[in-house]
Structure formats: structure tokens, C-alpha cells
């Protein structure tokens, strides 16, 4: 989503915590910022280098750390645990594969060194296509409910047909839809809350979002085929509901603003990048019979590594991204100014060259 100005981040933090709950990682913090970007001028020259650097540096470091964990605790021949752990057997830590995973959108197939990066692929594509998404978001200000239904229908079609762009990109389109209509939705939310029974409505919506996110796994024993695919598609409206409720209902924002959750939201991107190889390493070491011991070690260790990743990698990457974006914007502005001055000079020279002809024409 739109990269926030560092000065605006504290106001967004209550919404950032929703990222940990959303299957498609819709960035709730970006909703009001994206809405401002839609309604006002936005520095797109600064945006692209800032966004790419902001994502790329932590990703490269996370792939290197994941490869180090694999070398430290080899996964070859995993014969413990369930099918999920067995699928992590024999990852390719050759240089071409590592470079492909680190590039996010340059790899072929799903990553196996740090598998959670598969979802970042779609976030990167959304970031690159953001100008188009902004124009689309402006269009959705009319008939937003119809646009939301269309996005959900496209996503459901993707899950049924197995076409990944149709599965995942509409989730970001729904985020842009929320951004474009944020003020009107906030007004509507206040009216609902003020009505009799409004609190019950919001409690129901709060519970419905997570329920939709996990409905596929709850219903999987009873459903298969087309219906199973459709229940998997329900995680998209579930993620949108989670983001919307947190963004629009103040009573839910207050408990989510507690310091531990603020910290968890702050390091959530780093946690997303570092947790997987830690969980697999200790799951392999302790085996299914002592899964609880693996969890007892891997969960706090992942949190510690996320904090270190945030301090030593993510924050420096943000500072470098901000500086690079500012530099690119200034250079682009200087080039535009130079081009304008050159055009003015050429026009002045042309007028000077034509002055004698104009004088003769006037004399005649």
C-alpha cells in the first residue's frame, strides 16, 4: 500500500495490528494514507524507489537467515510430524534459487527456503501497479457495494479455477476500495453504532471476520470440490471485515492500542519474515512427540529475532528508502526544471531570430 510518512505512522498504529489476522495481509494502516493520496497530489517519483527498497532489503536478509537455519538444522529426509512439516523437506539453497526468492517476483513457483514470501509476491505486484489501483479506487467511489461484489466474484473465480492473480489481487483492490470510501464508511459506521443494537451489530461483524478466515478448515471434512474452493475464497471477505472493523469501530481500536499489541504490530513485518525457518527447525529437532517444546522455544525466539530484524534491518531500510525517494524526487524535479529552462531559452532564441522579419513586416 502507500508508504506512510514517518511522522504519520503513530496515528496508524492501532490499525496495523490487523495485519497479523489477515490472510492476505491487507494493510489497514495505509487506508487513510491511501485515501489522502487519492485525493491529493502524490510524489510517485519518490514512491517507487522508496517502496522497492523498503521491501527488498528485509526480504534479502530474511532469505539469507532462512538459508543459514537450513544449514544449521538440515531438513533433508524429514520423517517426523505431519504432512505440513514433511513438505519442508529438501529446500533448494543453491544460489540461483536464493536469488530468485530474494527478488520476490523473479522466482519460479512457490519459495521453499522461506515459503511465506509467496504472499509478498502479490504485495509487490500491487505496489508496482499502485497508480492503476488509485485510478480504480477513484472509480469505486460510485457504487462501492457493486465494486466490492465484483472484486469478491473475481477472487472466488480465481479460487475455483486455480488462477493465482485472480485469487489474490482482488484482496488488494478491496483494500483500495476501503481507502477510497474511508470517510463515508466512517460516517456510516458512526450511525450504525449510535442506533439501538448497533453495538451488537459491530460485535457480530468482529466475530464474523475471523470466522470467515478459518471457515475452510472448519468445513473441510464436510465439503470438497467446488464448495471446498468457495469456502477457501471466504478468507478474502473475512480479511476485509477484520480490517474494516478495526479501522471503523473505535471501541475495538482501544484494546488493540495496548503496548504489547502496539509492539507486535510494529515488528509484524519482521516477524512474518523470520518466523518460518525457526518453527521448522525446532519442529524438526523435537519431533511430533514434543511439539509443545518446539513451540515453547520457537515462539519466543521468533519474537526476539523479529525485534532484532526490525531494529537492525527494517528501520535502516526505511531510512534508506526515505532518503532514496527524496533524492529521486529532487533529481526528477531538477531535470524538469532544466528541461523547462531549456525550452524557454529555445523559445526566446527563436523569437530573437524572427525579430528582424517581424520588424520588416511591421514596416511594410
UniProtKB/TrEMBL annotation:
It comes from the Bacteria. Residues 42-310 form the Acyltransferase domain. The keyword NAD does not apply. One of its GO terms (molecular function) is acyltransferase activity. The chain crosses the membrane at residues 52-72, 117-138, 145-161, 167-185, 197-218, 230-249, 261-285, 291-313. Keywords: Acyltransferase, Membrane, Transferase, Transmembrane, Transmembrane helix. It holds the Pfam family Acyl_transf_3. This is Acyltransferase.
